[in-house]
């Protein structure tokens, strides 16, 4: 059973991973464009606008998408399942209509609060409309994840990638619009997708609405609104403090480091969760559910730690290749941001009991405690240590969330996680990263070659130390071989 479950998760995670790699490819492919046509201050302004929209989006969205997969699997009849999706879509649609004029009226206020000027009000308004349309797109995309339509998701991701890249080149390089061109590109892209995906979704599920379902789903997701607000505070408040104590320039440097560090979430955690979050509610009815949860968490930790190690080792080279000299200092913060992403990713495994027992208010309490600690530490540490203060704070905040998720979840649904193996993985990745920091070469090519050798030793060590059990790994190696038609030598 566990092998079948891991194969299912590996298959769909790899497909979703391809889709998110495509999405992440947009960010990486556009980095040379952004860093050559935008100053670090421009980059910081863009990051602050996006962070503000993220916080507002959590509030206006009611967290209703969080309830969709949970209630979808409460029904066996396809008509009832379709009504769950349709109800969420209609709620989201009317939210978008209601808040559009309010965002127009508040754009000047937001610009003045953050930048002491109303010159950026158009950025806020364009970003807010993109946010509202994006909420509708997310309903359509989340439905694909629920029904495991991962191939379709990848196709959409490719189309979106080419569209966004083309629009950004047009606005920034050809029209030379500056930072506002990025927001125009986003608005045009999301407008096209909201039409295409909505038509496709509504053709499949029809239009239906249940007030009873709406009340139940909002009741389920309402505590998660506060939880998500606290989560956004933990994720984004550091940018506001850096901007307040220093300037948009430092905010831009930190935001670039954070973008590359958080790419680990985009490459590993996000595609995994797209499969696992709805799937974990199916697993809970299996006899060996707890064993499955424990094994999945171990392999997830191995995967995210390994990819995080590779990104950390090569972060200086990535920055040098993708940006210009004004941004080079960002590289030293990346490994420590990656550490916070790994800590954060584990919380989804440690909170399983809370979600299964529908005790979502506990998550709100946990995130509330973490966000309070985050704000207090940001106040003291960023003013004194600058960007390093923000990096230290985010690691402490995520550690609090993950630890409290684990202890409260274990009280109501105990799972025996393999912390011994996780500790071995942590030790091996730490030693490997330390060795990579000793490599200081004038030539970037020589540096990459030597670090590649160090990483290769790490992969060999996974088998020698027993972290990877060859018997457990064999079915996945066979699956990989068959998938890519690798010939077998006699």
Folded structure, characterized:
The chain has 490 residues and is mainly alpha-helical. It has one domain. The protein is 84% helix and 0% strand. The protein contains 18 helices and no strands. The protein has helices at residues 2-37, 40-60, 65-72, 78-115, 121-146, 150-174, 180-205, 211-245, 248-283, 289-313, 315-322, 334-350, 352-356, 360-385, 387-412, 419-437, 444-464, 470-483. Helix 3 packs parallel to helix 5 (121-146) and helix 9 (248-283) packs parallel to helix 12. The radius of gyration is 23 Å and the shape is globular. The model has no long low-confidence stretch (mean pLDDT 82).
Give a short synopsis of this structure:
The protein has 490 residues and is mainly α.
Question: Could you give the distance between the termini?
Answer: 31 Å
Number of domains: 1
Give start-end ranges of low-pLDDT stretches: none
- The arrangement of helices and strands along the chain is HHHHHHHHHHHHHHHHHH
Total beta strands: 0
Q: What is the makeup of the main sheet? A: none
Report strand %: under 5%
Shape: globular
How many helical elements? 18
């Amino acid at each position: 059973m566990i092998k079948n479950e891991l194969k299912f998760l590996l298959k769909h995670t790899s497909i979703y991973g391809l889709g998110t790699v495509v999405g992440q490819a947009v960010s990486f492919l556009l980095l040379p464009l952004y860093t050559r046509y935008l100053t670090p201050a421009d980059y910081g302004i863009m990051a602050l606008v996006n962070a503000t929209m993220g916080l507002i989006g959590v509030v206006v969205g009611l967290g209703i998408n969080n309830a969709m997969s949970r209630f979808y699997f409460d029904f066996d009849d396809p008509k009832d399942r379709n009504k769950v999706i349709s109800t969420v879509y209609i709620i989201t649609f009317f939210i978008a209509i209601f808040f559009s004029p309010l965002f127009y009226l508040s754009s000047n206020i937001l610009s003045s609060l953050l930048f002491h000027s109303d010159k950026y009000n158009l950025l806020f308004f364009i970003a807010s409309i993109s946010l509202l349309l994006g909420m509708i797109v997310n309903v359509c995309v989340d439905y694909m994840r629920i029904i495991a339509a991962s191939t379709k998701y990848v196709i959409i991701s490719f189309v979106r990638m080419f569209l966004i890249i083309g629009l950004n080149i047009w606005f920034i390089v050809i029209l030379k619009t500056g930072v506002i061109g990025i927001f125009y590109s986003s608005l045009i892209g999301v407008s096209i997708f909201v039409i295409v995906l909505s038509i496709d979704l509504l053709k499949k599920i029809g239009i239906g609405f249940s007030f009873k379902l709406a009340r139940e789903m909002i009741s389920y997701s309402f505590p998660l609104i506060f939880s998500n607000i606290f989560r956004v505070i933990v994720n984004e408040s550091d940018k506001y403090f850096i901007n307040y104590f220093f300037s948009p320039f430092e905010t831009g440097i930190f935001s670039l480091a954070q973008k590359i560090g958080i790419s680990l979430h985009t490459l590993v955690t996000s595609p995994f969760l797209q499969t696992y979050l709805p799937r974990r509610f199916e697993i809970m009815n299996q006899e060996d559910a707890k064993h499955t949860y424990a094994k999945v968490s171990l392999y997830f930790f191995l995967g995210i730690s390994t990819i995080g190690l590779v990104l950390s080792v090569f972060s200086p080279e990535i920055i040098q290749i993708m940006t210009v000299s004004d941004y080079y200092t960002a590289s030293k913060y990346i490994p420590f941001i990656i550490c916070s992403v790994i800590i954060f990713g584990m919380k989804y495994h440690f909170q399983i009991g809370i979600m299964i027992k529908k005790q979502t208010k506990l998550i709100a309490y946990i995130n509330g405690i973490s966000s309070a600690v985050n704000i207090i530490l940001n106040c003291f540490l960023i003013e004194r240590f600058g960007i390093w203060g923000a990096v230290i704070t985010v690691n402490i905040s995520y550690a609090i969330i993950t630890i409290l998720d684990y202890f409260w979840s274990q009280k109501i649904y105990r799972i025996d996680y393999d912390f011994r193996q996780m500790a071995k993985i942590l030790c091996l990745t730490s030693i490997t990263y330390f060795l990579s920091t000793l490599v200081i070469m004038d030539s970037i090519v020589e540096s990459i070659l030597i670090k590649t050798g160090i990483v290769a030793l790490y992969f060999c060590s996974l088998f020698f130390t027993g972290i990877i059990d060859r018997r457990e790994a064999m079915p996945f190696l066979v699956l990989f071989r068959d998938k890519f038609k690798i010939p077998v030598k006699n």
